[in-house]
């Protein structure tokens, strides 16, 4: 089953959110408008808005209220991608030039700041002190995660704990917050919100681990950027951490830097693909997914629960 | 009268705010902590917290509540300075190396993001929907101002209106918001908050114009960076706009870029200093100050009003 067929009952609401996203980044500054629109039109799975809407189905669902949360969370995700691409010197995202590549680092920095400010502005339409506290704590963790990503770059001595903490901050927390804020803003109970938070957290961990696996196993066409980009940018991900148990591989990978030749990188990718590290990574991803499924069981039965279950299954099996 | 003697009755509260600022930027990430502390310890006039506290005196003053607003606004100011220094390729601020100079642009970007996120987090301690809306609108304007600053760099054809709109967004709005949020958070009336907003806006305009004058008239020692830095970074300020009425000067200034030789820059600075452009700039600064004084007259008499009056007078006469 295709991802977008799982939540076709949300289509009208998701179209509304797409429109609101476009409106949110409108600016009288042509440069800002162009750069933000470029990013928006590059697409993305809109997984955070989808989680917000589904989580809101556990409370008093009102799309005209919940849309602000959905749009704000997607904007925060977008803003963090723009700043990430500066850190990673990334040229391509989803097959299109990044803002830093099409314009420059400075424009990227301020486009990120602008989108971020717009997100905060939208969230003020939600009058729920808890929601604001959760969102702002999430933002602090997110920035810490990004600083960790800078600090840990090309650090081949980091351990599994460092990796897991980093992807928690970088990815899982924002997905967890999407589920939590969707339910809180629609007045769901504390127990339901907490289970949805945990569900989002576990799914987010699995999602990022899968992303990190696909960076090696998917094709350039599927990725929208060359395979092995993470490694070339110095981001040491789970498959690399596992593969480094082999000292031969470790000796070779230690020499990787931004200028490593394509052939040399290909050799490392091949090693990772034929080693056990991909299977071990999938196992850890599955471990988090199982935890996610267990959290879901605690929730009342409804179409949103079934959909969250299907999306989680999809995330565990996705090929790109 | 020295600036800090004007508000000595706030000393205990300002010391508290200084402590809270240090606490706010504490992080388990050593790099973030060092970079943020470096910025904090480089000093600054803390004019935004001072305005927050004084404005709060028009309502039900409670330092343990209002401190969050004061700290949040100073943090937002700090975060915007860090990102500004990236845009301006600035090496020095207040006589100390900037974060981008001591570390690099990427660290500066994320240190700014982190301080910014911390500010938003602190503001959630204020349960006042209006305050959040005002702050977030301010942030959107602030980022627009910063994008304008990039776009307008080395654009010698910009007019006075472009300059005024830019300094409004870059400086005046945040000072206006400091006055407004201080009074709103302490429950002052709408009329009082509005007058304080306008007071802050006018003072902010005068403050930035004075800053732009001092960039030419003050010494390197007073500025903590070389004179003429704005011009060298391509920021076309009021004295330059006025001086360009002389076509001889305009012909010369058109050639300025980041690599312009010190002697050539000195010659331009000398021209500006001996021309009428400084006096005309002072006149426009005074024009805004007079408007600020007029707004103050509408406010009830108290020690805060007298202090705001004195600070505004000081800003009109300050030499650095």
UniProtKB/TrEMBL annotation, chains A, B:
GO terms of biological process kind: isoprenoid biosynthetic process
Coiled-coil region list: 7-34
Pfam families in UniProt: polyprenyl_synt
Keywords: Coiled coil, Magnesium, Metal-binding, Transferase
CDD domains attached to this UniProt entry: Trans_IPPS_HT
Cofactor field: Mg(2+)
Molecular function in Gene Ontology: heptaprenyl diphosphate synthase activity; metal ion binding
Keyword Coiled coil applies: yes
InterPro entries, per the entry: GerC3_HepT (IPR014119), Isoprenoid_synthase_dom_sf (IPR008949), Polyprenyl_synt (IPR000092), Polyprenyl_synt_CS (IPR033749)
EC number, as in UniProt: 2.5.1.30
Reactions this protein catalyses: 4 isopentenyl diphosphate + (2E,6E)-farnesyl diphosphate = all-trans-heptaprenyl diphosphate + 4 diphosphate
Subunit structure: Heterodimer of component I and II.
PANTHER family linked: ALL TRANS-POLYPRENYL-DIPHOSPHATE SYNTHASE PDSS1, GERANYLGERANYL PYROPHOSPHATE SYNTHASE
Family, similarity comment: Belongs to the FPP/GGPP synthase family.
NCBIfam families named among the record's database cross-references: GerC3_HepT
Protein task: Supplies heptaprenyl diphosphate, the precursor for the side chain of the isoprenoid quinone menaquinone-7 (MQ-7).
Protein name per its UniProtKB record: Heptaprenyl diphosphate synthase component 2
Organism: Sutcliffiella cohnii
């Amino acid at each position: 089953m295709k991802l977008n067929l799982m939540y076709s009952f949300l289509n009208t609401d998701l179209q509304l959110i797409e429109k609101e996203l476009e409106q949110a980044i409108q600016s009288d500054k042509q440069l800002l408008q162009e750069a933000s629109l470029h990013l928006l039109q590059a697409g993305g799975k809109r997984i955070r808005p989808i989680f917000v809407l589904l989580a809101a189905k556990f409370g008093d669902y009102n799309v005209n209220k919940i849309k602000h949360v959905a749009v704000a969370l997607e904007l925060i995700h977008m803003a963090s991608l723009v700043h990430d691409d500066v850190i990673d010197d990334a040229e391509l995202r989803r097959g299109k030039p990044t803002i830093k590549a099409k314009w420059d680092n400075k424009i990227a920095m301020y486009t990120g700041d602008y989108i971020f400010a717009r997100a905060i502005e939208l969230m003020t339409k939600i009058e729920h002190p808890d929601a604001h506290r959760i969102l702002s704590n999430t933002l602090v963790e997110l920035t810490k995660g990004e600083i960790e990503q800078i600090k840990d770059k090309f650090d081949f001595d980091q351990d599994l704990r460092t990796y897991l903490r980093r992807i928690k901050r970088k990815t899982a927390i924002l997905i967890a917050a999407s589920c939590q804020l969707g339910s809180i803003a629609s007045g769901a109970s504390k127990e339901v919100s907490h289970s949805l938070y945990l569900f989002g957290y576990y799914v987010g961990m699995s999602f990022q681990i899968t992303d990190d696996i696909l960076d090696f196993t998917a094709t350039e066409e599927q990725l929208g950027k060359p395979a092995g980009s993470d490694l070339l940018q110095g981001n040491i991900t789970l498959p690399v951490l596992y593969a480094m148990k082999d000292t031969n591989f470790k000796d070779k990978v230690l020499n990787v830097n931004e200028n490593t030749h394509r052939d040399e990188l290909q050799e490392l990718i091949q090693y990772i693909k034929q080693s056990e590290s991909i299977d071990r990574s999938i196992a850890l991803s599955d471990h988090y997914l199982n935890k996610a499924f267990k959290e879901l069981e605690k929730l009342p039965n409804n179409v949103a629960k079934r959909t969250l279950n299907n999306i989680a299954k999809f995330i565990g099996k996705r090929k790109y």
